[in-house]
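Ops channel
N.P.: pipeline sanity check, posting one input/output pair.
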């Protein structure tokens, strides 16, 4: 060790520690400033000296959090997670982490800056509480890996509590609103069949857009879920969200009639269109390519507004289907199977707000049956 300097300046205590040599042979100096007391500076210098002697010192990097997340962390995830999971990670990082923390150098990230991001996301309410938890998981995991790779000395996210997730209230339509919407949607667009299937099956958007004509069982009045369309609409994936997602769903006879009529239209387009791209899809554009979900979402909003229905998301048609079934007294296990949930507990947890009323109605009906109560 060539030398140590510990002094007080106007901005506080600082130290200069000399250890080893640079590539040009000159002594390597390490300077640290801004300590409030002599004891703090002395402790920091001793820790630095020990890490240098043991070979565990992490060299300060100018790499920003954005550069690390995009060029290293997400790149590494490509080989470790499924494509749809990677899409979710990329969306959360690019839209909700990088705009607030991306410009900060890795070595300058603090628990406070990370906590401030969680506070901001919670206050803005642009993403759900569950997604804010995912943001925390991604930040913590990425910085834990950066620590293992010696890009930072400590993981600041380890000192931040995992955010609590408060579930957003589910907004749905009642039976009259569903009927009003479907009546107005009839014949308005080639994608009318999408809305009919969504509201009468509870299928996910990607499952409907990935449905093939050969997956329709005309004799049994049901459809088989065997593949989905990716969120960006660029890839048909031969697997579903969960193991339970690969399932068959019975549809009302009226919907099957509409589905047959729609498939006949698709077949006619196929025969009369040059350079038709046949993916055997039920929901597709005039050229046979996967439908653009943004167009479907726009049509959905326009029809909803026209009939005066409450504003809901496209995904809420799935919630509407499940809620109407539960209110009719359908066994939650059956509802769970139609939705493709991995466990009936997911269904019960998602729609727990309905249970008190259902319990009361069940007790009243049982009393009428057993005791002839009025």
């Amino acid at each position: 060790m060539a030398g140590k300097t510990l002094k007080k300046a106007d901005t506080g205590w600082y130290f200069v520690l000399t250890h080893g040599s640079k590539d040009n042979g000159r002594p390597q100096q390490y300077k640290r400033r801004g300590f409030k007391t002599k004891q703090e500076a002395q402790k920091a210098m001793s820790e630095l000296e020990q890490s240098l002697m043991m070979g565990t010192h992490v060299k300060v990097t100018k790499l920003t959090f954005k550069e690390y997340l995009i060029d290293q962390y997400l790149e590494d995830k490509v080989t470790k997670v499924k494509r749809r999971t990677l899409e979710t990670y990329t969306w959360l990082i690019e839209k909700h982490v990088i705009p607030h923390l991306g410009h900060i150098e890795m070595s300058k990230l603090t628990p406070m800056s990370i906590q401030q991001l969680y506070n901001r996301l919670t206050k803005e309410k642009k993403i759900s509480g569950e997604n804010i938890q995912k943001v925390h998981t991604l930040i913590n995991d990425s910085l834990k890996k950066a620590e293992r790779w010696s890009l930072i000395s400590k993981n600041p996210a380890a000192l931040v509590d995992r955010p609590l997730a408060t579930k957003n209230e589910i907004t749905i339509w009642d039976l009259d609103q569903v009927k009003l919407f479907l009546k107005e949607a009839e014949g308005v667009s080639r994608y009318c069949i999408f809305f009919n299937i969504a509201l009468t099956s509870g299928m996910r958007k990607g499952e409907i857009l990935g449905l093939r004509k050969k997956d329709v069982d005309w004799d049994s009045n049901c459809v088989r879920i065997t593949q989905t369309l990716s969120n960006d609409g660029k890839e048909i994936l031969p697997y579903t969200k969960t193991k339970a997602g690969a399932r068959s769903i019975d549809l009302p006879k009226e919907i099957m009639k509409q589905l047959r009529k729609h498939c006949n239209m698709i077949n006619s387009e196929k025969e009369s269109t040059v350079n038709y791209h046949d993916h055997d899809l039920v929901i597709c554009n005039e050229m046979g390519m996967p439908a653009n979900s943004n167009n479907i979402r726009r049509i959905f909003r326009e029809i909803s507004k026209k009939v005066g229905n409450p504003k809901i998301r496209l995904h809420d048609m799935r919630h509407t289907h499940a809620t109407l079934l539960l209110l009719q007294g359908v066994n939650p296990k059956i509802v769970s199977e139609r939705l493709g949930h991995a466990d009936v507990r997911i269904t019960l947890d998602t729609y727990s707000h309905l249970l008190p009323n259902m319990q009361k109605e069940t007790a009243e009906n049982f009393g009428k049956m057993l005791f002839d109560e009025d």
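N.P.: looks fine end to end. The chain has three domains: 3-54, 65-159, 175-311.
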